[in-house]
């Protein structure tokens, strides 16, 4: 991964918010991100696919659902950029986290939308 790859991937607001939400929650599925971002499934899935393609995210299939998490094997500098961005810009996703929390807590939240 190059710096250009990282910053291009995060230059879109939906991708940046998705990555920040995944960082905050450690792992999220598409339905959780749809609720948090108040966006359609195709739009969320398209942006997640781009983040996965660049290597920023890893996915795990559980039944018909796919869960996303930050790739722990990213270069140290990239993980540091993500950490710093998230810790310095939490207000960017405050409303999104509130939407996500309206679904309840895990594991109930996952049961309600992912089973």
Automatic annotation (TrEMBL):
<keyword id="KW-0805">Transcription regulation</keyword>
<dbReference type="GO" id="GO:0003700">
    <property type="term" value="F:DNA-binding transcription factor activity"/>
</dbReference>
<dbReference type="InterPro" id="IPR011991">
    <property type="entry name" value="ArsR-like_HTH"/>
</dbReference>
<dbReference type="Pfam" id="PF01022">
    <property type="entry name" value="HTH_5"/>
</dbReference>
<keyword id="KW-0059">Arsenical resistance</keyword>
<dbReference type="InterPro" id="IPR051081">
    <property type="entry name" value="HTH_MetalResp_TranReg"/>
</dbReference>
<dbReference type="InterPro" id="IPR001845">
    <property type="entry name" value="HTH_ArsR_DNA-bd_dom"/>
</dbReference>
<protein>
    <submittedName>
        <fullName>Metalloregulator ArsR/SmtB family transcription factor</fullName>
    </submittedName>
</protein>
<keyword id="KW-0804">Transcription</keyword>
<feature type="domain" description="HTH arsR-type">
    <location>
        <begin position="1"/>
        <end position="89"/>
    </location>
</feature>
<dbReference type="InterPro" id="IPR036388">
    <property type="entry name" value="WH-like_DNA-bd_sf"/>
</dbReference>
<dbReference type="GO" id="GO:0003677">
    <property type="term" value="F:DNA binding"/>
</dbReference>
<dbReference type="GO" id="GO:0046685">
    <property type="term" value="P:response to arsenic-containing substance"/>
</dbReference>
<keyword id="KW-0238">DNA-binding</keyword>
<dbReference type="InterPro" id="IPR036390">
    <property type="entry name" value="WH_DNA-bd_sf"/>
</dbReference>
